[in-house]
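Lab notebook, bench 4. Still working through the backlog of constructs that have no structural model yet. Next entry is a single chain of 144 residues. Request: give me the structure tokens for it.
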Amino acid sequence: MNSHIPGEQNPGHVIASIQKRIKIGNENTLLTSAGVHLLTGHVGKGQQFDWVWIVGAEQDTIPFFKATSPEEKAEEARVLSVMMSRARHGVVVTYTDAVPTLNGNVRTTAPSEFLSRFQRLDTLDMDGIKEWFAEADWNALAKR
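Model written out:
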């Protein structure tokens, strides 16, 4: 593996350490195992999590680019809403303004059209994210 973490003397050691901690779970481990669970919106349906991170909320990803009819877009919006409703404490939705393509080029992107539908969104700029997490009252959040 040729992955590299900037500033690391031995990046292969760090990557190997992370890989050893990754476990493939099943529907039983969603409720019983601590840690980060990587799921699709459909798999998380009916589950509850402390935090939900929705990664990739770019147009043509959410909603999926093949969803073109009003009915298909309504279903995509419903799945996003269900994903957001799975969180006990909070939801973090991320998007980027550029993504790499399979051929190595970079394609510009826009935020999902669905994000404008939510009445109240607390947004953080990239510089503010670390500050917000550092200042969060994690003990109070854990009691919720």
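Notes after review: Residues 42-136 form a domain with the Double Stranded RNA Binding Domain fold (CATH 3.30.160.800). Residues 3 and 15 are 7 Å apart (CA to CA). Flag for follow-up if needed.
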